[in-house]
């Protein structure tokens, strides 16, 4: 039973400073007991001021009390230790980050559970009991443990802030309402908090709505970025595919062009070789004929000379080309058969220059007729070496011709103008009686507007012009 009694009162044998069982217990003049080491440490910190007090009741002593070991407490503590029931406070009872520490504890401090706005101190569970015992007859204002207690006291009046002034929007004490805040709109701090908390609730809901809106925008933006990323990736893949196909197509086209060039090269070489062979044959033939003419020029038989000169074709009329080279009709015909419409000497496009005398060509579109009227005027003149009788006069000509007023008719008109400029539309014809005269060549002309409407008339004109190298 004695042991049980000791167990019930074991808190009386704990040091209020270290909260452990007393070690070398001593009792100071006010009657409270402490570990000798704990009270010495506490008073050593205050030794400079020369004022010593009890950590529990705050009683002060003018001189530092002499500490003597309390033998009875020491024996009781030893019995408690032997029972094995004493244990250190759990680890969660000590202060950690963000916790309010007990202002009475020394050494490792325990967490405070209450704060006193009168004492302006915070207490752990053990020291709170001491506080309540010391102030059992007083009504101290206790609240959940909190830091910065001084902020909850009115500095001018040293009273608890219990009232809220709506006018100045600050917490005040009851004395402030009679002085600086007299006549102001005031309520209790509880009422003020309720009102302001409602306003904060509205504000908070507004923030929550805005947060939801921003989160929705954020989600939409992320989806847009993902969509853009997918689109960009698809575009990259499409461009890769397109460029790959394009490169393959270019490679195929390059091969085709290379083959085409080689085929054209073979054809051109083959044609050139054939032309070389024909030219060599023509050169050999002309050398043979030149030798015959050289031999003929030395004969003294006039009849033989004239007969052989005619067979050689030396007095045939030559045709002059635009490139200034001249050939007889038969030689030029054979050259066209072998070379095409090219000059046998310079290989320029075959373009004839005729013996048409000087004159002019004009054209207009008469009213009410969907026709083109061409007017030719070649005045009288003297024949040149290109004409049948050089030095003799010839009779000129004035003629009109018609073409249909159509795009194709305009095209033929331009071809006829080129032929006129190359002196191919008219020639001088020798007559048996009277002066020689200017006449049309073999290029068809319509001397009335009905004739130019005949089927294939324009085709016949173009064919004749094409034979003269005009197209």
Automatic annotation (TrEMBL):
Keyword annotations for this protein, in alphabetical order, are: Coiled coil, Metal-binding, Zinc, Zinc-finger
The superkingdom listed in its UniProt entry is Eukaryota
Which intervals hold domain B box-type? 149-189
Pfam families tied to this protein: DTC, TRIM_CC, zf-B_box, zf-C3HC4_4
Q: Which GO terms describe its molecular function?
A: zinc ion binding
Q: Name the InterPro entries for this protein.
A: Deltex_C (IPR039396), Deltex_C_sf (IPR039399), E3_ubiq-ligase_TRIM/RNF (IPR051051), TRIM8/14/16/25/29/45/65_CC (IPR058030), Znf_B-box (IPR000315), Znf_RING (IPR001841), Znf_RING/FYVE/PHD (IPR013083), Znf_RING_CS (IPR017907)
Q: Which residues form the RING-type domain?
A: 15-58
Task: Tell me the leader sequence span.
Answer: none
* PROSITE patterns (UniProt xref): ZF_BBOX, ZF_RING_1, ZF_RING_2
Q: Which residues form a coiled coil?
A: 204-238, 262-296
**Gene3D superfamilies listed in its UniProt record:** 3.30.390.130, 4.10.830.40, Classic Zinc Finger (3.30.160.60), Zinc/RING finger domain, C3HC4 (zinc finger) (3.30.40.10)
Q: Where do the TM regions start and end?
A: none
Name the PANTHER family on file. Answer: B-BOX DOMAIN CONTAINING, E3 UBIQUITIN_ISG15 LIGASE TRIM25-RELATED
What family does the database annotate? Answer: Belongs to the Deltex family.
Q: What is this protein called?
A: RING-type E3 ubiquitin transferase
Species the sequence originates in: Albula goreensis
